[in-house]
TrEMBL record:
Keywords of this entry: Hydrolase, Metal-binding, Multifunctional enzyme, NADP, Oxidoreductase, Riboflavin biosynthesis, Zinc
Pathway: Cofactor biosynthesis; riboflavin biosynthesis; 5-amino-6-(D-ribitylamino)uracil from GTP: step 2/4; Cofactor biosynthesis; riboflavin biosynthesis; 5-amino-6-(D-ribitylamino)uracil from GTP: step 3/4
Biased composition (Polar residues): 291-303
UniProt GO molecular function: 5-amino-6-(5-phosphoribosylamino)uracil reductase activity; diaminohydroxyphosphoribosylaminopyrimidine deaminase activity; zinc ion binding
A Pfam family matched in the record: dCMP_cyt_deam_1
Function field: Converts 2,5-diamino-6-(ribosylamino)-4(3h)-pyrimidinone 5'-phosphate into 5-amino-6-(ribosylamino)-2,4(1h,3h)-pyrimidinedione 5'-phosphate.
Native organism: Rhizobium esperanzae
This protein's name: Riboflavin biosynthesis protein RibD
Family under the similarity heading: In the N-terminal section; belongs to the cytidine and deoxycytidylate deaminase family. In the C-terminal section; belongs to the HTP reductase family.
Length: 435
């Protein structure tokens, strides 16, 4: 059967539905499924919070007997393997569905093409690739982690009319208006983790949480690139670490940790379920981060060479004094941070080509880089940004402004402009990597 306008209409609805649980389905993708009979939706569902149950069995249960002879619209190829739940392809067969329309084929080697084959062997008609570009966009985080062994990275910048992203020594400066800020809150709510540099963490003292009423529980894991453990103990991040997880990425060049027998280049287990970070450091269960062989699969443009420390990203002072350099002081500071609920991990903060795969293996599929001109440049130069959200506001910062690392006139090659949106007086231009 050829693809019809109705097929595209129902698939578009399934894709919209899938976005409801972005960032909330652990390591599983957020999939949308519609069961349609005689042009009427008789069942619909999205992957449940936490990743189970999957969308298909929920939609089939809602449809009941009406599923027999119906068409199922699924944004991702139904799974064909036995995991913690039975294969979704089997559920579609058991309910007597006559046709399955799929947007994106699953790259997971346990599934890829096998779900489609299973359905066809059962006599079910299958059409794949319907609104594939839109489907891939909604599944970008899952697909990137599956195919590139790293999270999907979004860089967000808010730029003033005179090309500034902040004001030296002034902490947080409101550049965009309330409408744009509300949109950013929605972006945070559908993202697994958010990352800033230590300079931003100290100068702005941000919370980095979701503050939209009703969505607070969807706040992402907060990550700070902090080579010398300079994060102030009185910061908002430390104060709220037991409410929303905070990970501090410290330099692995800390000899006293090696003397204590703690691997300097491993990340602790991070549960893919938001809000749960493993406290146990079991070296046998943690993959080393210093093996640069992983960098070959982290995305086009990734540099295999070490990226030098970012001059100016590290502040000269923290808590009224210089960042600790003595091993005993560093150990003491780590102990205090961990007692406050902060997770301290050891990996060169300026090696994103190593850090990102480590985050992916711990269930982080999407990362929002939101703070620091030099941190933004770090990820851009490494070729590890997949999407750019560039907000432009009519505000003028003036003298003492911090210049943006990126303007609309110098978007890196390989990015395509996906659209422009207006939020109040602010303009958002969105760009996506084409490959």
């Amino acid at each position: 059967m050829s693809i019809t306008p109705d097929d595209e209409r129902f698939m578009a609805a399934a894709i919209r539905l899938s976005r409801r649980h972005l960032g909330r389905t652990a390591t599983n993708p957020s999939v949308g499924c519609l069961i349609v009979r005689d042009g009427v939706v008789v069942g619909q569902a999205v992957t449940a919070v936490g990743g189970r149950p999957h969308a298909e069995p929920q939609a089939l249960a809602e449809a009941g007997e009406a599923a027999r002879g119906a068409t199922a619209y699924v944004t991702l190829e139904p799974c064909s393997h036995h995991g913690k739940t039975p294969p979704c392809a089997e559920a579609l067969i058991a309910h007597g569905v006559a046709r399955v329309v799929i947007s994106v084929t699953d790259p997971d080697p346990r599934v890829s093409g096998r779900g489609i084959a299973m359905l066809r062997e059962a006599g079910i008609e299958v059409d794949a690739g319907v609104l594939e570009a839109e489907g891939r966009r909604s599944l970008a985080a899952y697909l990137t982690r599956q195919t590139k062994n790293r999270p999907y990275v979004t860089l967000k910048l808010a730029v003033s009319a005179d090309g500034m992203i902040g004001l030296e020594g002034e902490g947080q400066v409101a550049i965009t208006g309330p409408e744009a800020r509300a949109e950013v809150q929605a972006l945070r709510a559908e993202t697994d983790a958010i990352l800033v540099g230590i300079g931003t963490a100290i100068s702005d003292d941000p919370l980095l949480t979701v503050r939209t009423p009703g969505l607070e529980a969807q706040s992402p894991i907060r990550i700070v690139l902090d080579p010398a453990l300079a994060l102030p103990l009185t910061s908002k991040l430390v104060a709220t670490a037991r409410e929303v997880p905070v990970i501090v990425v410290a330099s692995e060049e800390v000899s006293f940790l090696q003397a204590e027998g703690i691997p300097p280049s491993v990340l602790p287990d991070i549960s893919p379920t938001r809000g749960e970070i493993g406290k146990e450091r079991d070296p046998s269960s943690l993959a080393p981060l210093s093996d640069k062989s992983t960098s070959g699969n982290v995305g086009q443009g990734a540099s295999p060479q070490p990226i030098p420390p970012l001059v100016g990203e590290m502040p000269g002072r923290a808590e009224g004094g210089a960042p600790p350099t003595d091993p005993a002081d560093m150990d003491s500071r780590r102990t205090v941070l961990e007692a406050a609920g902060v997770e301290v991990v050891y990996c060169n903060p300026y090696h994103p080509e190593i850090l990102l795969p480590a985050l992916a293996t711990r269930g982080i599929s999407s990362l929002l880089v939101e703070g620091g001109a030099k941190t933004a440049r770090l990820f851009l130069d490494a070729g590890l940004v997949d999407r750019i959200q560039l907000y432009q506001a009519p505000v003028v910062i003036g003298e003492g402004g911090i210049e943006t690392p990126l303007r609309a006139t110098d978007i890196p090659s390989g990015f395509a402009h996906r659209g422009t949106s207006l939020f109040g007086v602010d303009r958002l231009d969105e760009y996506e990597r084409e490959n």
